[in-house]
Amino acid sequence: SQQGEEDPQALSIQEGENATMNCSYKTSINNLQWYRQNSGRGLVHLILIRSNEREKHSGRLRVTLDTSKKSSSLLITASRAADTASYFCATDNDMRFGAGTRLTVKP
Amino acid sequence: DAGVIQSPRHEVTEMGQEVTLRCKPISGHNSLFWYRQTMMRGLELLIYFNNNVPIDDSGMPEDRFSAKMPNASFSTLKIQPSEPRDSAVYFCASSLGGVRVQALHFGNGTRLTVT
Predict the structure, then answer these.
(1) Which residue of A has its CA nearest to B89?
(2) Is pLDDT at A1 greater than 60 in this prediction?
(3) Is the sign of the CA dihedral B54, B32, A39, A94 positive or negative?
(4) In this complex, do A100 and B42 lie within 8 Å of one another by their Cβ atoms?
(5) Taking 90 as the threshold, does the pLDDT of residue B62 lie above it?
(6) Which residue of A73, B25, B37, B39 has the fewest CB atoms within a 10 Å radius of its CB?
(7) What is d(CA A61, CA A71) in angstroms, rounded to the nearest whole number?
C-alpha cells in the first residue's frame, strides 16, 4: 500500500479562491513531494519539502509539513482555471501515489 | 534536456501478443521507475531501479510482466502474453538520488490497448 494518501478526493472552487489539499503518510521520511497531473499527461513535480522544513513556498504554492502528525498540505493561492488538474503526494522512501485530489477551478 | 522519452506513444495489440515498452531516462539520473495508471486502480508503482539494479519489483502484477535496465540510458517493460486487463497508460520516470528519492521526472507515457 502507498505511503501518501491525499484528501479531499475532489475539490471545486472559483477562480481567485485558494485551494488546500492534504496528504497523510505512515512512516518516517527524508522528504515529501507534490506533483500535478493534467489529463492524459505524465506527472509534473511541483515542490519537495524536506523533513527538517516546516514550510516552503514556490510562486503561488505553499507547502507545509508536520512530521509529528505525518501530514502535509498544499495550498494554491489565487487559483486559475489552468490549475485544474489532479494533485498527488509521495514520500521519498516509497514513491507510491494515492488516488490524488482532483481540483477543478471554475472561471 | 530532452526529458524522459518513452516509446511508443500509443500501442494497440491483440490479446496474446508480446508488448515491449521503452524508456530513455534523463542523462545522469540513476533511478528509474515504471508506473501503470488506470481509472480503476489509479497510479501503481510497478518496479524501481537504482543504478540499473531492480530494487523493488513488488508491484509487478504477475510473471507476464518483466522489466530490464541493461544500461543507464535505457529500460524496457515487457508484457508477454498481453491481456485486455493490461490496457492502461504506462509511465516511466527518472530521478537523481539513491534509496532516498529526489524529484521524479515523468515521460509522456505509453497508452496501451489490448483487444
Answers:
(1) A40
(2) no
(3) positive
(4) yes
(5) no
(6) B39
(7) 17
